[in-house]
Amino acid sequence: MAEPFKEVFNQASIQRVASALARVHPAFDSAGFMVEALEGLSDLELKERSLHLARCLRRYLPEDYSDALWIMMATLSAPLAMDDEPVWEHEGDGLYGFITMPYSDYVLLYGLEHFELSMAAMKEMTSRFSAEFAIRAFIERYEDEAMVLLTEWAADESAHVRRLVSEGTRPRLPWGQRLKGFIEAPEKCLPLLEALKDDETEYVRRSVANHLNDISKDHPDLTAEVCKRWMEEPSERRKRMVRHALRSNVKAAHLPSLAVLGYDPEHAQVVSCELRDSRVEFGSKLSFAAEIANSSDQPISYMLDFVIYHRKANGTLAPKVFKWKRGELRAGQKLSVTGQHSMRPITTRRYYDGEHKLAVLLNGIETAVGSFELVGVEEMVA
């Protein structure tokens, strides 16, 4: 079994950090640092371990922030190549990867009053381990100044730095501080994304897509508008990026987004649909079918999904969309499709006996299919 991810911060890796700091700064008390760093470490998760180590660094490095920062920076490896994956391994000279995460947390905790120095440090750090979490506090406090710098960084020769421009400004970065100003006014970041949309690396383009997907959670129409503009004479890699950016909108059957991807809701039609089981034993499968058609005289793309309205504890029904089939329909073509869905125990859903419903989604347009009764849940989970 693989070690828990938090074990990237263990006695051996912390000793490497202490030794690197002592080589640069002989006055560094490695023994004292190790005692404090390991105290209570086993009770902490990944992020808490990193913050704990940053606080320990504060007590054992020089009090002057610029001096402490210089020492930490001097322990770093050379900037990483794009094909490096600095998560667990540590080889060669200098520190990189997750074991340098406490350095960016140090900047976050103690560098907020030193904007220029801290931003310069994070620009260097992000080429060894992303500074996307630490930079967010600086963007929030110094938005105008940060955006000027980030605009410059969008043209930096390092893909790590260019990615930080997009990833660091994501309004809803998972596990990161939400940027409320950008949630409310996402257009502030659009010039940055515009500059990066055709970046030469997938690493950066995927971040742009994730940023747009974040925006779609609050402004789905804006995301569709941007992607529509970007899909005018697009390259293949831009098409892939746009599809990834619109994934939440597509899942929500957002019609303007589906139109951007070429899914015409007007001429794709559900001719008939059938629910083959009116009563389903928990642990078995629900069977269904649909016939769809293209009513136009031109080929069209289609995306066919199905929706199960699951019964909740209070008796109400909540929809869950599942992918089914996608492809192209020739002019006038009809297509019959069958499907099954397992109604079995899973860790992410609690099932309840009683009425459920099924619908199909064709290019974003929902068609009701019918109701079925789920039975045997209480007996199986009892």
SSE map:
Layout: H1 11-24, H2 30-38, H3 46-60, H4 65-74, H5 101-110, H6 115-125, H7 135-141, H8 143-153, H9 159-167, H10 180-184, H11 190-196, H12 202-218, H13 220-230, H14 236-245, H15 247-251, H16 255-260, E1 268-275, E2 279-281, E3 285-294, E4 300-311, E5 317-329, E6 334-342, E7 354-362, E8 365-375, H17 377-381
Parallel strand pairs: 2-8
Antiparallel strand pairs: 1-3, 3-6, 4-5, 4-7, 7-8
Helix pairs in contact: 1-2, 2-3, 3-5, 7-8, 9-12, 12-13, 12-14
Alpha carbon gyration radius: 26 Å
User: Main beta sheet: strand number and arrangement?
Assistant: 5 strands, mixed
Global geometry? globular
User: What is the structural class?
Assistant: alpha+beta
Low-confidence blocks of residues: 84-90
Count of separate DSSP helical elements? 17
Helix content: 40-55%
Terminal-residue CA separation = 31 Å
Tell me the fraction of residues in β-strands, as a range. 15-25%
Number of strands: 8
Series of H and E elements: HHHHHHHHHHHHHHHHEEEEEEEEH
Mean pLDDT: 94
Q: How would you write the strand order of the largest sheet?
A: 2-8-7-4-5
Verbal overview:
By secondary structure, the protein is α+β, with helices and mostly antiparallel strands. Helices cover 42% and strands 20% of the residues. The strands form 2 sheets. The chain has a 5-stranded mixed sheet, with no helix packed on it. A 3-stranded antiparallel sheet has the order 1-3-6, with no helix packed on it. A hairpin with a 5-residue loop joins strand 4 and strand 5. Helix 2 packs antiparallel against helix 3 (46-60), helix 7 (135-141) packs across helix 8 and helix 12 (202-218) packs antiparallel against helix 13.
